[in-house]
Write a structure and sequence with these properties.
- A 4-stranded mixed sheet has the order 1-2-4-3, sandwiched between helices.
- It contains 13 helices and 4 strands.
- It is an alpha/beta fold.
């Protein structure tokens, strides 16, 4: 197994901007802590007012516009990303005028500060990056059966800008996950569990046989399935990490092994399908 690691500056720029926007669903990246950190790193900016002006349209049209969180993965650089945004076939003319073009202007203006900031941070973290990639690889080796079963290696994108959660990316060549770059020992295992969560989504979401979205409850159900799938995997492959896993889950509410199925339970038939899926991977 040979996992890959990427650091994508123009992707981080997008996540940096979205850390300033309040989104009315689980994809929300808004972070007062991150905003304060950025305000201390640069001169005054009007990004908050500008991004707030776009938030209503984004929230009302989230199902179409959320793709801006994933398109950067498939573009080699910033200029290509902007062209992809402007020419993406699912965006309406109103999307372009009310959201995409104003967003690009914000990205352009923020890039003048952010790209230099990102380069300096990336260089500063060189030794830490090597250490974290080595440790991540060791953890991923314990779950090699997942990637071997799907005949796809792991691709982890470490982000300096994502403020919570992660992103699982539908890639034909890899099981891909974007997660926060672990800056210390305490955040390392949490970033790993987030990556495992995103990898797992890519083979458990299909069990729902539905177009998963935020409005009809299917996204919440998909989250329950992933939480249970990773519980089964961790228990089978690295049970010493179960306490850490429950601590990670407890960031959004107290979760223990005894109440796991009360909080994330799924119906018996779906759980049977999930257990069969996990069994096939483990074998």
């Amino acid at each position: 197994m040979n996992p890959k690691f990427r650091y994508v500056k123009h992707y981080d720029l997008v996540l940096h901007v979205f850390a300033h926007m309040k989104v009315n669903n689980a994809s929300d990246l808004y972070s007062k802590k991150y905003i304060e950190k950025m305000s201390n790193a640069r001169q005054n900016t009007d990004i908050i007012a500008r991004i707030e002006a776009l938030s209503t349209y984004y929230n009302e049209n989230y199902q179409r516009l959320m793709i801006v969180h994933f398109l950067p993965y498939f573009t080699p650089d910033y200029e290509n990303m902007k062209r992809r945004f402007l020419n993406f076939e699912r965006f309406t003319p109103e999307d372009l005028s009310c959201f995409i073009k104003p967003l690009i202007q914000i990205l352009d203006d923020e890039s003048l500060f952010f790209f230099d900031y990102w380069d300096n941070m990336h260089q500063h973290n060189e030794d830490l990056r090597k250490d974290m990639e080595h440790r991540f690889t060791a953890e991923l080796q314990k779950y090699a059966c997942i990637f071997e079963h799907h005949n796809k290696p792991a691709m982890t994108l470490f982000s300096y800008s994502i403020t919570r959660n992660g992103r699982g990316i539908d890639d034909n060549a890899y099981l891909s996950a974007l997660v926060p770059f672990p800056e210390n020992d305490a955040s390392f295992i949490f970033s790993f569990f987030q990556a495992l969560h995103e990898f797992t989504h890519q083979f458990t979401d299909v069990l729902l046989n539905a177009n998963i979205n935020m409005q009809d409850g299917s996204h919440d159900l998909s989250e329950c399935i992933v939480v249970l799938a990773d519980y089964y995997l961790i228990k089978a492959l690295d049970s010493s990490r179960l306490d850490d896993y429950f601590e990670w889950l407890s960031m959004s509410g107290n979760v223990t092994e005894s109440n796991l199925f009360d909080m994330y339970g799924i119906d018996v038939q779906l759980d049977s399908v999930l257990r069969s899926t996990i069994k096939n991977i483990l074998e």
